[in-house]
């Protein structure tokens, strides 16, 4: 029933792209109008909701735009605009697939190429769009509709009303109401109910600007370096610097078809082509310059929310990139710890479940105590259903809502830390594991069979005194911890979520400790019996 409802929603006409204006006019409760007063009168005469009447009244009050000057009349017409959502993928809806009436879980359609993006708020109604157009000159005028022009529209949702558009106020980040003409910086901060922060885009200079990537130092004299990063389970080496630096972090989103088990593949949305994304390492006080490029071949917009960043959205609003775009932003790292990062574009849980997550280490001043080996491990869930292609899974939004994952995995796939790339250490090594839980739903009871955590930094806290001799710790979605181990006895140690049924969904990995010489520490662990794993055992290698 839910799938049928999703299909009806997807095909209901809330998403109209490049509809001929004659068809749009015929379907609309408002007739075409050439000025704001006509639009208001049409709205008042029709059986419309109160919010449309308010918008029409605001349009009438604002009055018609002045006649264009000769220069403006001679100028070429602006490109057609397409009203899009701040985050277009509200949910994954089903739409009819190929033969047999099958359906596939797909995101909302993307904006057609060649259309300028204009972000707007308001309500899902064609009449609403026509009223706003007549009032503010935004998307397409009613006069253009009367002439048979092409109008591009989109579903609009959100708490914003159209009064701001009628008054010539700005739209969401990335767009603006242009009916009032350009706004000079001398006019001061915008007074708006929108989400754009006061003073945003007022021409403030970036204090960490620099001419180019080959420049040795930025405007503050900080040395410019690439941000250290590594793919799981590896970790970048500890920071040896004693002074802050300006770090350049390049991240790219691509779509990759990767194995999640011997039986299935899944189409992941990735950072740098891997799941999880790379782990980065910096020092408190460093300046992080992020250069984020979106190469998602499906045309889906993405961004990055760094839990290590102080400011709105963890950087997500300024790093939102459509397909083919690169966004750049700088952040000062003020807080030491182990932090998650993830895509925060809507629908946020879908982007995380599809693989867009990773960890970021911000070392405290003075760094961390040295250890022999460091590893990077992330637990996550895969919400999927069979697709029309054998062996290939589709994302299931409804399984995500039900919190019923098909797989719960470590480092992106079943068997990734057992057969593919188990963690390797030597007897008596000191080992540190940076562990994160990407979720998006389940809390992890992280445990390692056969040893205790000599030190446990709960919640990624690297400055408070650590807990000692803990065997199991809870890590919520979006959380992390750092555990230090001492491994005097060689053999296999098992990483798992002690919500133990999840082992059968793939949440298990091995830490293999190799013996040094002949000293197997029989004083600590000994038996005359030969080790015999039980039939079908997944826990003891």
UniProtKB/TrEMBL annotation:
Provenance organism: Pleodorina starrii
Protein EC: 1.7.2.1
Region listing for Disordered, in residue ranges: 67-111, 162-220
Enzyme class, spelled out: oxidoreductase
Key words, A-Z: Copper, Metal-binding, Oxidoreductase, Repeat
Similarity section: Belongs to the multicopper oxidase family.
Stated name of the protein: Copper-containing nitrite reductase
Xref: Gene3D superfamilies: Cupredoxins - blue copper proteins (2.60.40.420)
GO molecular function: copper ion binding; nitrite reductase (NO-forming) activity
Domain Plastocyanin-like intervals: 260-365
A Pfam short name: Cu-oxidase_3
Record field: compositional bias (Pro residues): 67-81
Quaternary data: Homotrimer.
Record field: catalytic activity: nitric oxide + Fe(III)-[cytochrome c] + H2O = Fe(II)-[cytochrome c] + nitrite + 2 H(+)
The protein's required cofactors: Cu(+); Cu(2+)
Binding residues for Cu cation: 302, 307, 342-343, 351, 356, 498
InterPro entries given in the database record: Cu-oxidase-like_N, Cu-oxidase_fam, Cupredoxin, NO2-reductase_Cu
Highest taxon above the source species: Eukaryota
């Amino acid at each position: 029933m839910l799938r049928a409802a999703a299909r009806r929603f997807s095909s209901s006409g809330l998403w109209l792209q490049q509809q001929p204006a004659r068809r749009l006019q015929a379907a609309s409760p408002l007739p075409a109008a050439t000025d704001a007063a006509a639009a208001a009168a049409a709205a008042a005469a029709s059986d419309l909701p109160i919010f449309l009447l308010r918008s029409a009244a605001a349009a009438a009050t604002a009055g018609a735009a002045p006649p264009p000057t000769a220069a403006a009349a001679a100028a070429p017409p602006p490109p057609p605009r397409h009203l899009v959502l701040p985050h277009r993928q509200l949910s994954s809806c089903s739409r009819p697939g190929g033969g047999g009436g099958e359906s596939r879980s797909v995101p909302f359609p993307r904006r057609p190429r060649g259309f300028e993006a204009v972000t707007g708020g308001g309500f899902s109604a064609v009449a609403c769009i026509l009223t706003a157009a007549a009032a503010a000159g935004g998307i397409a005028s009613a006069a253009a509709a009367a002439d048979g022009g092409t109008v591009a529209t989109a579903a609009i949702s959100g708490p914003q009303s159209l009064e701001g558009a009628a008054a010539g106020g700005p739209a969401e980040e990335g767009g603006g109401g242009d009916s009032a003409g350009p706004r000079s910086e001398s006019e001061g901060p915008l007074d708006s109910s929108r989400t754009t922060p006061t003073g945003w885009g007022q021409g403030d200079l970036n204090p960490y600007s620099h001419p180019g990537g080959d420049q040795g130092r930025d405007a503050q004299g900080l040395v410019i370096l690439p941000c250290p990063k590594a793919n799981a389970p590896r970790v970048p080496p500890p920071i040896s610097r004693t002074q802050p630096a300006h770090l350049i972090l390049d991240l790219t989103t691509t779509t990759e078809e990767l194995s999640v088990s011997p039986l299935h593949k899944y189409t992941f949305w990735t950072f740098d082509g891997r799941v999880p994304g790379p782990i980065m390492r910096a020092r408190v006080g460093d300046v992080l310059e992020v250069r984020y490029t979106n190469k998602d071949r499906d045309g889906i917009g993405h961004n990055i929310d760094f839990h290590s960043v102080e400011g709105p959205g963890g950087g997500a609003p300024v790093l939102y990139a459509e397909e083919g775009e690169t966004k750049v932003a700088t952040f000062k790292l003020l807080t030491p710890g182990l932090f998650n990062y993830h895509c925060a574009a809507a629908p946020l849980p879908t982007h995380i479940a599809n693989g867009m997550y990773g960890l970021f280490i911000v070392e405290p001043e003075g760094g961390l105590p040295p250890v022999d080996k460091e590893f990077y491990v992330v637990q996550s869930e895969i919400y999927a259903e069979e697709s029309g292609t054998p062996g290939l899974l589709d994302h299931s939004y409804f399984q995500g809502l039900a919190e019923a994952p098909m797989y719960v995995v470590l480092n992106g796939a079943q068997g990734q830390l057992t057969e593919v790339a188990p963690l390797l250490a030597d007897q008596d090594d000191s080992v540190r594991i940076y562990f994160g839980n990407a979720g998006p739903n389940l809390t992890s009871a992280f445990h390692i069979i056969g040893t205790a955590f000599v030190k446990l930094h709960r919640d990624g806290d690297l400055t408070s005194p650590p807990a000692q001799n803990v065997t199991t710790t809870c890590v919520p979605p979006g959380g992390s911890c750092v555990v230090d181990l001492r491994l005097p006895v060689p053999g296999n140690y098992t990483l798992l979520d002690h919500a133990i049924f999840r082992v059968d969904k793939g949440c298990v990995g091995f830490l293999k400790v190799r013996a040094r010489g002949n000293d197997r520490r029989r004083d600590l662990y000994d038996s005359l019996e030969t080790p015999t794993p039980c039939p079908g055992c997944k826990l003891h290698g």
